Amino acid sequence: MADSPAANGNGGAQQAAPTINALAQYVKDLSFENPNAPRSLQPKEGQGPQINIQVNVNASQLAETDFEVELTLEGDAKMDGEVLFAFDVKYAGIFRMLNIPDDQMHPAVMIECPRLLFPFARQIVAEAVRNGGFPPLYIDPIDFVGLYRQKMMEQQGAPGPLAS
């Protein structure tokens, strides 16, 4: 009796909770290059390598509630202008988005889905770098909210936060 709509205090039917279900996850593309091996594997004196990483998120709608979200991590490590290694992974997932309001669907797809994919893509990069003969590269957590906001500002042509 306590489960009736009148008893729960809202007087109406309960709204189903918003959910994101990962239906599948997969590597779409993976590349690792170690162009200067074995020379690049020899210990070097001085400062460590300079590591550059770029992140991108793309999504496409497959059905009314289903989306494919692709997280791309590209990067390289250079020392003294020489490439030690380079990687490119496109890791994707199919997500079912249920009971998410229309005005929140785009941010949910572009923020929450890549947030769910990231730990798996990060591990793939770490293992590829380790299998290339280097210490594993564990990419720092990514601020997908900040990345989303930056992309939205770029698409709208709005000036960045430091522009006057």
TrEMBL record:
Organism, as annotated: Methylobacterium aerolatum
Family, as annotated: Belongs to the SecB family.
Matching NCBIfam families: PRK05751.1-3, secB
Major site of localization recorded for this protein: cytoplasm
Name of this chain's protein: Protein-export protein SecB
Listed InterPro entries: SecB, SecB-like_sf
Compartment(s) of residence: Cytoplasm
Complex formation: Homotetramer, a dimer of dimers. One homotetramer interacts with 1 SecA dimer.
Keywords: Chaperone, Cytoplasm, Protein transport, Translocation, Transport
The keyword Ion transport is annotated on this UniProt entry: no
A Pfam family that the UniProt record links to this protein: SecB
Task performed by this protein: One of the proteins required for the normal export of preproteins out of the cell cytoplasm. It is a molecular chaperone that binds to a subset of precursor proteins, maintaining them in a translocation-competent state. It also specifically binds to its receptor SecA.
